[in-house]
Amino acid sequence: MTRQTGHLSILLVENHEDTITYVRRFLEHYGHEVRVGRTMQEAIRQVEEKEPDVILSDIGLPDGDGWNLLQQLRLKTKAYAIAMSGFGARADLDRSLAAGYQDHLVKPFAPNKLLDALRRAEQRRQKQ
Q1: What share of residues in the chain are helix, strand, coil (percent, to 5)?
Q2: If we measure between CA atoms, which residue out of 109, 81, 104, 116 comes closest to residue 3?
Q3: N or C: lower Cβ tally within 10 Å for the chain?
Q4: Residue 107: exposed, middle, or buried by beta-carbon count in 10 A (0-12, 13-18, 19+)?
Q5: Residue ranges per domain, the chain?
Q6: Considering the entire predicted model, what is its pTM?
Q7: What is the CA radius of gyration of the chain?
Q8: Which residues pair with 90 in a beta bridge?
Q9: Beta bridge partners of 37
Q10: pLDDT for the residue numbered 5
Q11: What is the CATH code of the structural domain delimited by 9-127?
């Protein structure tokens, strides 16, 4: 994989440890700074401490769902938001967009799909 994106600050919101390990290593390999929130409350606290460029969030969280999380976070940040979910029906994608996500990746997703989403995040950041 030679596709590159610029350095991004990414908040990974995920409670599954294997997924955290894999995604974090993958993102760090491409030069991104990664912080982790395992619950909605941790994610909110992380955003309040330091606004990320990108929020990469699972939809299923132990204390709620990623759709509600992003609706709450939209009051605090304009970060590019990418949903990760095992839910891939059209209604799920529409719900993610309605909640404020710019991208929705269906698990398991190919690494290049994540890189493509991060490239879109970087392009948006450069336009701001």
Answers
A1: 45, 25, 30
A2: 116
A3: C
A4: middle
A5: 9-127
A6: 0.93
A7: 13
A8: none
A9: 13
A10: 58
A11: 3.40.50.2300
